[in-house]
Design brief:
The protein is an alpha/beta fold and about 400 residues long. About 30% of the residues lie in helices and about 15% in strands. The protein has helices spanning about 25-40, 65-70, 85-100, 115-120, 145-160, 165-175, 190-195, 260-270, 290-300, 305-310, 330, 340-350, and strands at about 10-15, 50-55, 75, 105-110, 200, 205, 215-225, 235-245, 280-285, 370-375, 380-390. The strands form two sheets. Strands 3-2-4-7-1-8-11-10-9 form a nine-stranded mixed beta sheet, with helices on both faces. Strands 5-6 form a two-stranded antiparallel sheet.
Length: about 400
Amino acid sequence: MGPDRPRRVAVAGVALSDCGRVDHATPYALHAQAARRALADSGLDRSVIDGLASAGLGTLAPVEVADHLGLRPTWADSTSVGGAAWEVMAAHATDAIAAGHANAVLLVYGSTARADLKAGRRTAALSFGTHGPAQFEAPYGHTLIAKYAMAARRHMHQYGTTLRQFAEVAVQTRANAAFNPHAMYRTPVTVDDVLAGPVVADPFTRLQCCVRSDGGCAVLLAAEEYVADTDTSPVWVLGTGTALSHATLAEWDDFTVTPAAVSGPLAFRRAGVTPQDIDVAELYDAFTYMTLVTLEDLGFCAKGEGGAFVEKGRLTIGGALPVNTDGGGLSACHPGMRGLFLLVEAVRQLRGEAEEGRQVRRRDGTLPRLAVASGTGGWFCSSGTLILGRD
C-alpha cells in the first residue's frame, strides 16, 4: 500500500454453518458456528476483527450479534435492504477497509426459518405494514411471490419469454446441486417435471420457487497487509456497486428492469472488467425469473434475450456461464436472506475448493479467475453487485 492509493481488500475467510434441516439450533448458534469456521478458514487471529456487519436478527442488530460473538467492533453496519443486504454491506465494508476505517470486517448471518415454521414459532406470511408506501398495495393482498409473478408475466408479454425457459433455470440449477453434497435437493428434474408441478403463483410452479431452509454463513474481509498471514489464497474485491429502486410496484418504472441494471455496470466499471470476462456467476434466485432478468441487467445478454440465453445448458457447471454452482436458492438452501451465501460460493469457486464435479474450470482447464456475486432485495427493490478475482 502506498500513500497515493487505498488499501486493497481481500476475502480472507469464508464458511457455512450447518445448513438445510437444522432443528436443534438457534439463529445465534448458527451465527457463531459460521463465524468460528470462517475465522478458522482464514487462519487469522480473532483480535484482528474490528468491524461487524449483520442484519436480520435481534432488536439491536448487529449489537446483539456482536455481543453473542464476544466482539467489540469499532465499525459496524446493519443495512437492511432485503436479500441484497450482504452485497451492499460488503461494499460498505470494502470502502471502510480501503479508507483505513477498519482492518477486518466479519459479515455473518444465520436463520432457522424452516425449523421455526415447523415448530410453529413463525408463519410464512410477511407483513410490510399499512402505513407509508405499503398502504396503497396492502389492501389488495399483494404477497411477495405475487409481485415476482407479475413481473415475470410482464417479461413474457413484452419479450415472448416462455414457461419452458423459466423452467430451464430450475432444471440447470438442480443439475448443479446434484454435485453439492450439502444441497437440500439433488435429484435431477426435467422441464416437464417443473411445469407439471402445482402452481404457487402464476406462472411459477413449486420447483420455480426457492426452498425454505435453515442455515448461516460468514465472510471475513481484510486489508491487504493481512493476506500474508492467511491460510488461503487471496480473493480480491475488485469492484462493487449498489442501487435502490422502488418500494411499491406502482413506483416501479419497468417490471422488466431491475436495480441490477445500475449496480452491475457500476461494479464492472470499477473493477475494470466486462461481463464477458466473468467465469462464474452467483445470483440471487428466490424465483426462476430472478436469474433470467438479472443476467440481462448485468449485461450477459441484451434486454429481452434472457429466455434464449438460459437454454442449452448454459448455466450448468460445464456450460458457457456457470450460474449458482452450489444449486442456488432453488435447490441448495435459502434460509431467508441468501445474499451472503453467494459470496461464499464465489470465493470457493475461485479458490478451487468446490467438490469434484462442482468445480468450475476454464476452457484451458485452469481455475476461474473472475466471479460476480449479485444480490437482490425485496421485490427487485435493491441490488448489490461484487466482482471478485484471484489476481
